[in-house]
Amino acid sequence: MDTSLRVVLYGVGEMGRIIARVAFERGLNIVGAIDVDPWKCGKKLGELVGLGDDLDVIVSRDAEKTLSECRPDVVLHATTSFLDQVYPQLIKCARVGADVVSTCETLVYPYYRYPELAELLDEYAKNRGVSFLGTGVNPGFLLDVLPAVLTAGMTRVERIKATRIIDASKKRRSFRRKIGLNLSLEEFEREAFRGGVTGHVGYAESVMLLASIMGVDISRVEEFEKPIIAEEDFEFGDFRVGKGRVAGIEGVGRGFIGDGEPFIEVRFVARVGAEEYEEIVVDGVPRVVWRSTGVDGDLATAGIVVNMAMKIVDAPPGLLTMGEMFPSYVSSRHGLKRRMVF
Q1: What is the pTM of this model?
Q2: Burial class (CB in 10 A: 0-12, 13-18, 19+), 34
């Protein structure tokens, strides 16, 4: 346990509270917490995460004041999915000399969707001597880093297909709202247009992160997502999904090297009542197939964030990806994987 590592929680929503509990259990020194929700501000973080007086840090709305007074080594950041929205928050952290590990999905590989902001962040971080990292379980590990690791023993890679399927009824409320559960198709489309329903964010980021780790140049990326409509009524706890209403989402991201079939395909399904599993198939020599019985995404995300927080303090300054946080045999800087691909 590293009780000397000073951390601030930036975002105390459902995901942020899970991260806070894991960080506390791992012995990190939580010295501050930030959130914009008036109901949370002024309360003890321990009350919000179920730790009582064991964690008596007060949640504050004033990010600049909290960061300036607490002087954290690392900020554990969990607010929203889009880099253009969190960019000012990241800059505030860097100004006080703090590294940042964030669950922002588009920060996992920001060069695809936000190339200009990514360059600005990288330059700012290097000037301040700090590091930024976007990570999580998906994107950030299961459909991108893990497939790259599985290619380590292969002599030739022809195609990668990674799938993750989860039971949406078991997920936190904020996730269920994010994918529009129990909305009519018309309501879903309207909320998607307004930004109230974002679905899963990160198909292209997973494709590009995986390609970057392998040293593969992707010429074209496709991503799409559609709602899944319930064929019957479904109830779980006090929540109900009616027949004909949205029971989940299904999406795909594909990365192409040239014409023809995609070199990388990632697929994500979140549907009520689904059998949970992850499966990675790497065609080539030798062929690799890996399958799990389902990973607890929230707990795994918190674990990754905390684990990377303990590593990022020794990382070089700049905007990093998970490719730089793992051993060199999956790092594109060595150029090993480029020679393996047809």
Answers
A1: 0.91
A2: buried
